[in-house]
Amino acid sequence: xxxxxxxxxxxxxxxxxxxxxxxxxxxxxxxxxxxxxxxxxxxxxxxxxxxxxxxxxxxxxxxxxxxxxxxxxxxxxxxxxxxxxxxxxxxxxxxxxxxxxxxxxxxxxxxxxxxxxxxxxxxxxxxxxxxxxxxxxxxxxxxxxxxxxxxxxxxxxxxxxxxxxxxxxxxxxxxxxxxxxx
Length: 182
Known about the structure:
Blueprint: H1 2-26, E1 29-35, E2 38-42, E3 48-55, E4 61-70, E5 75-82, E6 87-93, E7 99-110, E8 115-124, E9 128-134, E10 136-137, E11 141-142, E12 144-146, E13 152-158, E14 160-165
Parallel strand pairs: 1-13, 2-14
Antiparallel strand pairs: 1-3, 3-8, 4-7, 4-9, 4-12, 5-8, 6-7, 9-14, 10-11, 12-13
């Protein structure tokens, strides 16, 4: 009886350790972020630059897809380019003009804490806060990254914002001559 209990306990413990190892493997993650997380821009400002950055958390990333939602009433997408480590394509805005999408890949994979995925340029169109949010709509617009065998990593995101403001005119003082008594 004691041997049976010990064996069952041993099997239980082995099963628990195996499960914990599998969970740790499936819990590998990467973090994609907007950089800077927050910035201000004047209405009409061109070349408002946003970078998409990736922290692989020590994992080897082979590719991924990014879908960044933005407020098209506040921002107008102008241009974009992929970071130097990547190939594939940058699709630009969707038909609604409110999501920039891109697909990236790299032969052999890469690791890094601050990898440039893409640089996006906007024009500040109207005053207000324009949220920049990564989309996670499974099967349609899902921001995700994979290893070199296309196994997905858990993808965490740090969204950002651009606060578009109307510039204020600051009066400039013009010195005037002071009359002197004669």
